[in-house]
Amino acid sequence: MTFEALGLNTSILKALTDAGYTKPTPVQEQAVPAAIAGKDLLVSSQTGSGKTAAFMLPSLHRLAAIEPAPAGKTPNQEMQAARSRGERPRFKPAQPKMLVLTPTRELALQVTTNTDKYSVNLRRIKAVSILGGMPYPKQMQLLAKNPEILVATPGRLIDHMESGKIDFSQLQILVLDEADRMLDMGFIDDIEKIVAATPDGRQTMLFSATLDGVVGNMARRITKEPQIIQIMTAANKHENITQRVHFVDDLSHKNRLLDHLLRDDTMDQAVVFTATKRDADTIADRLNIAGFSAAALHGDMHQGARNRTLESLRRGQVKVLVATDVAARGIDVPSITHVFNYDLPKFPEDYVHRIGRTGRAGRNGLAISLVNHAEGMNVKRIERFTKQMIPVNVVEGYEPKKTGSAPRSSRPGGWKPGDNRGGAKPGQRSFSKPGNGAPRRDGVSGSAEGYKGPGFKANNPYNSDRPRRSYGDR
Ligand code: AMP
So where are the chain's domains? Predict the structure, then answer.
């Protein structure tokens, strides 16, 4: 299958060639022709499957086919004209033709960047991001240009709707990206309000890791005779990502092991996921002291700081990003070789999204979960969800003392030392030396006490165990 065969116009095809896309991904093969035909879509596809292009390419194709509006003034020009007449300019609301709702600012920016790439030869079509954390005057300037496409997080969009800055009466296409995530984050009322403000005749496309439960109910309410496309469920995926569990006795053990694993010479860049913002900051600080180029990313940071951190990650200046789940989706940096779950995620779905930060663009990746003995059940829950066994690994010099508390290794068919399950497939890159899945014997820091980097302090609060904080603090 080629992009030409999907029926896209030549300007978009040229942009795809320039972007280096040679053929559509499976979700694009199915979604693009249906969306060009104007059908509503309910799509469940995995992260990294090319879903942004699956909704954006047909939308750009349709928007490009719309006759340009008679050459009236843009809201910006009308305001200038009013000023020159000595009148107080009234803000004319933007009237977008397409709206993409995303759960996080990072994902919104990613969607806007990709849209710019796909629409580079469609000069009339502009996309802007409307995000929480961005200064209002800057957003008013963007809205005053009356862009065809808005990519927005729900909360800030509602602010602008309520203050009369956006009018959805001309909206033709509505996309809910990662709808399950938006519902998890409590945006249901905002979404209902936004949908109610759009015309009934719109085309609606909903993308979600799952189409079950609450998401499915909402999806049915807001779409009309949708075409359902299920490429892969959230559970069967990431075959290019080697997954491992390392059991740890306490936080001191966890920190020493993390430091050691981060020194793996196959590591290019890593994301370390924590349950709380505070831990993200503290661990990033600790890793910096230990000589890593680390940065934190979480929802308490201003948008400018978040953007700068992501840009440094993309440029390779930040080697280790320590993040809460706000970063679990949307980050698309192919050189991320390792993902660490410093804390396990609350939901198995989040595990899938977290580890999907590595193994991007057809590469292999390594996902390591550092797990307290008491968390064995949570690992099992993830295994049930992904229908994949995650092998337990032990690094020489960092062995957990409580070996008996890992029931997984003793169950029939469970992990045994040297097991290679979940390791790289033949022909794939191997991450541990020697042999995949085997304990490391490279002697980088093989003393019984393990590595104590320059930042290791005996009185560091992270050298002792502490109660887990609630997951509410993301
Ligand atoms: P997404 O699932 O939208 O986050 O896309 C994941 C990554 O795949 C992004 O880096 C896209 O630029 C890239 N991508 C999407 N479609 C294609 C394609 N047909 N060929 C090559 N890369 C693609």
Answer: 4-68+76-230, 236-474
Q: Which residues lie below 8 Å from residue 308, measured CB to CB, with a gap of 6+?
A: none
Which residues does a 6 A CB cutoff place in the pocket of ligand 1? 21, 24-25, 28, 48-53, 114, 332, 361
**pLDDT digit string, tens, across residues 308-357:** 999 999 999 999 999 998 765 668 788 999 999 999 998 888 898 899 88
Nearest CA to ligand 1 atom 1: 50
d(CA 250, CA 359): 29
Query: Is CATH 3.30.420.10 the classification given to domain 236-474?
Result: no
The length of the chain is: 474
Residue 396 Cα to ligand 1 midpoint, Å, equals 39
The amino acid occupying position 78 is E
Question: Any bridge partners for residue 271, and if so which?
Answer: 321, 339
For ligand 1, the distance from its centroid to the CA atom of residue 257, given in whole angstroms, is 34
- Distance between CA atoms of 472 and 455, rounded to whole angstroms? 29
10 Å CB burial of residue 215 (0-12, 13-18, 19+) is: buried
Alpha-carbon distance 439 to 425, whole Å?
A: 17
Q: Name the band, by pLDDT with cuts 50, 70 and 90, for residue 385.
A: confident
Nearest to 262, CA basis, from 336, 202, 195, 211: 336
> Which of 4, 16, 21, 360 has the most ligand 1 atoms within 8 A of CB, as the residue to mutate?
21
Domain 4-68+76-230 CATH assignment equals 3.90.1150.10 = no
Residue of the CA atom closest to atom 8 of ligand 1: 50
Say if 4-68+76-230 and 236-474 have the same CATH topology. yes
> How many angstroms does the Cα of residue 53 sit away from the middle of ligand 1?
7
Cut 0.90: pTM above it:
no
Per-residue pLDDT band at 48 (split at 50, 70, 90) = confident
CA 435 to ligand 1 center in whole angstroms:
31
pLDDT digits (tens, 9 = 90+) for 219-252: 999 999 999 998 764 445 677 899 999 999 999 9
Mean pLDDT of the residues in the chain: 81
